[in-house]
From TrEMBL:
It comes from bioreactor metagenome. The keyword Oxidoreductase applies. It is an enzyme of class 1 (oxidoreductase). Residues 1-219 form the DUS-like FMN-binding domain. This is Putative tRNA-dihydrouridine synthase. Pfam families: Dus. Its EC number is 1.3.1.-. One of its GO terms (molecular function) is tRNA dihydrouridine synthase activity. The gene is dus_36. Keywords: Oxidoreductase. The lineage of its organism: unclassified sequences, metagenomes, ecological metagenomes.
Length: 226
């Protein structure tokens, strides 16, 4: 009940259900009756700034039997623009008895720490912050343990780029994998020296072996300049 994509909300699903809480309640009730497994509900803070209704909506989810809820701190109208409203998430946490998971704008251990401290939530959910940086989970785990988070080193990034590409090819075939991996390479290489140039080269390639060789050469060039 948190997805803002038009192809979902145009049919009344996703975050559009925040405009029809009676229907949302029936859905949660039916899900609760259908399983004894843990039941979670994800939501936004409202449809738009004029209809922020996450407090009553989250209460309804709790009353209908949700075991925990996840709150993304934006309205549907915002999509992913602007800032997530962590203060509203904190209000939800204060009013609910079930666990509340905070979501929105967590791109580092520092973000996670700040959100947990401000909201008092039971956990955090990470989405876009993991794109190109799956090591964020390791960094947060280290931070929570009181250790200095260790960012990924170039060799780790290289090996994951290659592994991701191979797995994508096994799943979707080489032609599709080469195309779909372009956006992933952009995320993985973000912030590295010369990344724009190597991304431009990869975007013209249609062979997996050519892409793999280019990735290896690129990371070797980074090593040679260190």
């Amino acid at each position: 009940m948190g997805c803002p994509a038009p192809k979902v909300t145009n049919g009344g699903s996703g975050s559009a259900l925040m405009k029809t809480p009676e229907l949302a309640a029936k859905i949660i009730e039916a899900a609760r009756q259908a399983t004894q497994l843990p039941l979670s509900v994800k939501m936004r803070i409202g449809w738009d700034e004029k209809s922020i209704n996450v407090l009553p909506f989250s209460k309804m989810a709790e009353e209908e039997g949700a075991d925990y809820i996840t709150v993304h701190g934006r309205t549907r109208a915002q999509h992913y623009s602007g800032k997530a409203n962590w203060e509203v998430i904190a209000r939800v946490k204060r009013e609910r008895k079930i666990p509340v998971i905070a979501n929105g704008d967590v791109f580092s251990w520092a973000d996670a720490k700040a959100l947990l401290e401000l909201s008092g939530c039971d956990g955090i959910a990470i989405g876009r912050g993991a794109l190109g940086n799956p090591w964020i989970f390791r960094e947060i785990k280290q931070g929570l343990a009181g250790r200095d988070p260790l960012p990924a080193v170039p060799l780790e990034i290289q090996e994951l780029c290659l592994r991701h590409a191979r797995l994508m090819a096994e799943w979707k075939g080489e032609d599709r994998a080469v195309i779909e991996m372009r956006k992933h390479f952009a995320w993985y290489l973000k912030g590295l020296r010369g990344a724009a140039q190597v991304r431009s080269r990869i975007n013209t390639m249609d062979s997996l072996i050519e892409v793999e060789n280019t990735i290896r050469e690129y990371f070797q060039s980074l090593s040679d300049h260190d």
